[in-house]
Specification:
This protein is an alpha/beta fold. Helices cover about 30% and strands about 20% of the residues. Strands 1, 2, 3, 4, 5 and 19 form a six-stranded parallel beta sheet that branches. Strands 15-14-17-18-16 form a five-stranded mixed beta sheet, with helices on one face. A hairpin with a 2-residue loop joins β14 and β15. It binds iron/sulfur cluster. Iron/sulfur cluster binds near residues 185 and 498.
Length: about 500
């Protein structure tokens, strides 16, 4: 059988900012470009094309994206720079200074076509005088329902994996139908569109066959998955299918909306050991007046009932949540209500945002502003309260033998316990690493910041699926992350809310 290798189109570099959802999109793009014959550039300064995949739902994220483009322009004056993702969508068709083109969130599929047409004119291609060719962005965001969302997995171009990588994110849907008054995401990402289950399962199978043992399901509103499909589908049904596979060891759910956590999901969390006993459920607040002003459901009593039910039905559940402090109108009483919920030890991991007025959101028009110094004080107080909880929990775990997943990361070996999601919940710092990826047993010895310390007590069982000798991934373009914006653990996860 002959394999045709596409002719080299040029050298490309892909930079990604923002959340795990962006990371997955960037990986998908990189595989597709590699499959189309784009070579990787060791450094952006050597690239003919630089794609900057951006975040844009907070002012700080947009500033970071602008600075990244400016920095790349300085290091690669003749490169063709494409800005893609939320910042491009926010700009509504304008090309930011320093870039050559912009592709909104519904237009990622057009990147190969855009680059082909530019490549036909030769790279390095454009001087500053030729820049400014805006690529129009549809005002409706991400297009019609039931059509596959843009920028998704294409089975012919599998996503890149690092050697020894055991964990991978898997997107189940795009966009959001809710209307939280502080949030720009529905404007940037459009209405919720579920991916077709067949397509998600094919991508998941492909990852598992290549050695992934932890699948982390993500989207803007994971629990809404399947609501727009006919026949309807649901997150628990999708999860049930994946945990039935031998190769899946851990399955993790991120960005569950509290209004979407139903009895079926709770039963699954309680009964399915592969579900990690972990749930990421951003609550944003715990006081009725603020939840109402935010446009969030359920209200205060419904939220506490849900928390009680989860604790009662799912023993050992690790809950992660995020809160916003300083929302307009938040009183001391509101804040105390939220702080009490944290002090009671209801959560294993907490991230905290300070509310910021995003021009295009309804909350930006609210007048009863909380002074920034007060908001910052509340943020610190909430984090301190959570830190005390984590300290108690960490001490209680000393001596406990736990399963840890060890895998290679760009910074070396890293270990995590089932109650720790990648990138945000800290990890387990081991006294030694066995020099290979896999699942091992470790004994907890203490806590260091948001991490736990532990000693390795066995060499684990062999990974369930081994890569073929010599496996080197998919010939993808490397996806460079800009300085890690994911602030570790109990600080705010700056780009992920739900
Ligand atoms: S905060 Fe989450 S649920 Fe609310 S509108 Fe934004 S993405 Fe949707």
């Amino acid at each position: 059988m002959s394999v045709s290798i596409p002719a080299t189109r040029g050298r490309a570099s892909l930079e990604v900012l923002g959340c795990a959802k962006n990371q997955v999109e960037a990986e998908t793009l990189s595989s597709r470009l590699a499959g189309l014959g784009w070579e990787l550039a060791a450094e952006p300064s050597e690239a003919d094309v630089i794609v900057v995949h951006t975040c844009g739902f907070l002012e700080s994220a947009r500033l970071e994206a602008s600075e990244a483009v400016a920095r790349l322009r300085r290091s690669a004056p003749r490169a063709f720079i494409v800005v893609s993702g939320c910042f491009a969508q926010f700009l509504g068709g304008k090309v930011p200074p320093g870039a050559d083109a912009a592709l909104g969130t519904g237009e990622l599929d057009r990147l190969p076509e855009l680059l082909e047409s530019r490549a036909a004119r030769g790279f390095p291609c454009l001087g500053p005088e030729a820049r400014g060719a805006a690529v129009p962005i549809p005002s409706s965001g991400v297009g019609r329902r039931r059509s596959p969302p843009s920028g998704y997995h294409d089975a012919s171009f599998p996503r890149p994996l690092r050697m020894g990588q055991l964990s991978a994110y898997l997107r189940v849907s795009e966009g959001c139908d809710r209307r939280c008054t502080f949030c720009l995401i529905p404007q940037l990402r459009g209405k919720m569109k579920s991916r077709f289950p067949k397509e998600i399962l094919a991508e998941a199978r492909g990852l598992v066959e290549r050695g992934v043992e932890e699948l982390v399901l993500i989207s803007q509103d994971t629990t809404a998955f399947g609501d727009d499909l006919r026949p309807r589908m649901s997150l628990p049904r999708l999860a049930e299918e994946m945990v039935s596979w031998d190769g899946v060891r851990w399955l993790r759910l991120l960005y569950a909306h509290p209004a979407g956590v139903d009895e079926r999901l709770i039963r699954l969390l309680a009964g399915e050991r592969k579900l990690c006993g972990y749930l990421d459920m951003p609550l944003q607040h715990l006081s009725d007046p603020v939840l109402k002003a935010m446009g969030r459901t359920p209200g205060e009593s419904g939220t506490f009932r849900l928390l009680d039910r989860l604790r009662e039905k799912v023993p050992g559940l690790a809950l992660r949540t995020t809160f916003i402090v300083g929302f307009p109108g938040e009183t001391d009483r509101d804040f105390r209500r939220m702080a009490r919920g944290v002090e009671e030890g209801r959560f294993e991991h907490v991230g905290v945002f300070v509310w910021s007025p995003e021009d295009r959101t309804p909350s930006a028009r609210l007048r009863a502003r909380v002074p920034p110094a007060v908001a910052e004080e509340r943020r610190r107080a909430l984090l301190d309260a959570q830190s005390a909880v984590m300290d108690r929990r960490g001490r209680a775990r000393i001596g406990e033998a736990v399963e840890v997943m060890i895998e290679s990361s760009p910074r070396g070996w890293a270990a995590r316990a089932p109650w720790q999601a990648p990138e945000v919940d800290g990890g387990v710092l081991l006294d030694r690493y066995p020099g290979r990826s896999g699942f091992f047993t470790a004994r907890i010895t203490g806590r260091k910041g948001i991490d736990l310390t532990a000693e390795l007590v066995d060499h684990g069982d062999a990974p369930r699926l081994r890569r073929k000798p010599g496996f080197r991934g998919t010939g993808m373009l490397p996806v460079h992350r800009f300085p890690d914006r994911v602030m570790h653990g109990q600080d705010a996860r700056a780009t992920s809310i739900s």
